[in-house]
Amino acid sequence: MEILYKSTRGNNETVTASKAILQGLSADGGLFVPTQIPSLDMDMETLAKMTYQEVAYEVMSRFLTDFTKEELQDCIEKAYDEKFDTRDIAPIVKADGTYYLELFHGATIAFKDMALSILPHLMTTAARKNQVKNDIVILTATSGDTGKAALAGFADVPGTKIIVFYPKDGVSPIQEKQMVTQKGSNTYVVALEGNFDDAQTGVKQMFNDAELAEELLQAGCQFSSANSINIGRLVPQVVYYVYAYASLVKNKEIEPQETVNVVVPTGNFGNILAAYYAKQMGVPIDKLICASNENKVLYDFFTTGTYDRNREFILTSSPSMDILISSNLERLIYHLTGDDSEQNRAFMDALSKDGKYTITDAMKTKLADFYGNYAGEEETAQTIRRIYETAGYIIDTHTAVAASVYQKYKRDMRDDKKTLLASTASPFKFTRSVMNAIDHSYDEMTDFELVDELAKIARVKVPQAIEDIRSAPVLHDTVVEKDEMKGIVRKILGI
Ligand SMILES: *Cc1c(COP(=O)(O)O)cnc(C)c1O
User: Fold this and answer.
1) Using a CB cutoff of 8 Å and minimum separation of 24, what contacts does 128-133 make?
2) Is the distance from CB of 143 to CB of 315 less than 8 angstroms?
3) Could you give the percent of the chain with pLDDT greater than 90?
4) Which numbered atom of ligand 1 lies nearest the CA of 228?
5) CA distance 404 to 299
6) 161: nearest Cα among 169, 151, 175
7) Helix, strand, coil shares, percent, the chain, to 5
8) DSSP letter at 25?
9) Which of 263, 389, 392, 485 has its CA 20 to 30 A from that of 157?
């Protein structure tokens, strides 16, 4: 069955999967969504016998129907190889009565690697399929993890350039060091005097800038996006929910049709939307538990039906979730309207004009699959300490937000169904906050002393990604104001 993609704000025009991946964002400002969610149509016992790569093929081939089998398998092989430090790619660790789905075993030790190690291959394959001769310029805003994962994925990929904007004071020291030491002749990293939403808004404006697009074409380039607004990010993220469920069946932790809950630490709503798509495909998932940090705009949305970004932007110890405009929520809103792009557009217009919108009661009833809550800074730190002290397992700050919210869920809902929790980053990426949560006296140490101490108390090896940046030279030091974003892009591209 062929799956086509349409814009959440468009008419009925459809494009193939490869075109949707190439374009990133639709020209009308909307996001591409599949016209239909394909059914998995395969029993779990069969999936349970497969490798991650084989499951990836089964899931992705159902969404990306204009890719040939050879093309897709080639992309999958190049993506999920020794860059990951475990053959399982996405292993599950049982701790504190929860199944932690560790999504941080890739090159940059955050879950963004799960999709960004394959996106460059999907994109260059898509360019070839569509006879695109232009260079693809990846323009990306990052709250810390996407940037490095995209840089690592696209570095030295022929026919591509990548420009990453990150909020100067909005990422962890290790995240910043990872980005500014990035090698590759086609990589550009720019710090922005602003927050993540400023970076994301600036990037979206450039995507919708017809004049800039024309200048790019003259120079033989075209933009695409590595942000989770690209459907080529979302589809690979559906894979690990299918794989994780099949792994639980394989390890006899659950019966083949038993339902499980999924908890996801959420920022841009990409990861949890992938879980929602996995559920729509037929994976027996019950509740989708959406965990926010103190930027709790999604929690308020789930409890009131009003999305309101008019509030203070709070910098927290889980910076990759410091977001007030969750881009991917637009895809859910669109589905809640019954795929009505007119109605969705009205909500999104209100969001950009007034910073808020309220969904209808009919839409609200369709939100029953979701549960939202949030965790404050102190709770998050306590959760890290508690799980370390009781289970000897050290989780990062983002995962700890999810673990805290899961505690609240169990208490509020009295539901002790088996639960998968998306563990989105290695604790080594947020060493200072993690170690401080365990013991304040660690605060005296330098970043790399903390890394070694963490390895010691967690009894794990320092990940290669951290070893690589210990002494790496800084290669990128550009800082710009919000109104200089377009100028710097022109300068980098020589247009
Ligand atoms: C990006 C990120 C998140 C948020 O994921 P979304 O898909 O944007 O909701 C959570 N945790 C970590 C570590 C991340 O890098």
Assistant:
1) 129/18, 129/66, 129/67, 129/71, 130/18, 130/19, 130/22, 132/22, 132/222, 133/220
2) no
3) 93
4) 7
5) 14
6) 151
7) 50, 15, 35
8) B
9) 485
Residue 131: strand, helix, or coil: coil
Note whether 434 and 269 are within 8 A (CB).
no
Backbone CA torsion sign across 179, 180, 182, 186: positive
DSSP 39: P
Res. 131: pLDDT tops 90? yes
pLDDT at 443: 86
What is the distance in A from the centroid of ligand 1 to the CA of 146?
8
Tell me how far CA of residue 9 lies from CA of 197, 284, 330, 336, in angstroms.
21, 30, 10, 14
Q: Does an H or E element contain 373, and which?
A: strand 370-374
**CB within 8 A of 414, min separation 6: which ones?**
none
**Token couple for 334:** 């669109």
Task: List, for residues 134-174, the tens digit of each pLDDT value.
Answer: 999 999 999 888 999 999 999 999 999 999 999 999 998 88
The residue whose CA is least distant from atom 1 of ligand 1 is: 320
Contact partners, residue 343, CB within 8 Å, separation at least 6: 337
Task: Enumerate residues 6+ apart whose C-beta is below 8 A from 59.
Answer: 40, 235, 238, 239, 242, 281
Quick check: 239 and 56 in contact, CB under 8 A?
A: yes
CB-based contact 355:310 (threshold 8 Å) = yes
- Choose, from 6, 112, 204, 279, the residue flagged as catalytic: 112
Q: What number does the ligand 1 atom closest to the CA of 398 have?
A: 11
Residue type for position 252: K
| Cβ(308)–Cβ(356) below 8 Å | yes
Token look-up 């639980």 returns 248
Q: Is 471 helix (H, G, I), strand (E, B) or coil?
A: coil
**Hey, what are 400's tokens?**
């700890």
Question: What letter would DSSP give residue 33?
Answer: E
Who contacts 199 (Cβ-Cβ below 8 Å, separation ≥6)?
Answer: 141, 142, 165, 166, 167, 192
Which tokens belong to 324? 């007030």
Q: CB under 6 Å to ligand 1: residues? A: 110-112, 145, 228, 265-271, 320-321, 398, 424-425
Q: What is the pLDDT of residue 203?
A: 93
CA angle 94, 373, 113 (to 5 degrees): 55
429 catalytic? Reply is: no
CA distance 128 to 329: 31
Give yes or no for a contact between 430 and 397, defined as CB atoms under 8 angstroms apart: yes
Q: Which two tokens stand for residue 46?
A: 């069969």
Which tens digits make up the pLDDT trace of 20-43? 999 998 989 899 999 999 999 999
Task: Indicate if the pLDDT at residue 11 is higher than 90.
Answer: no
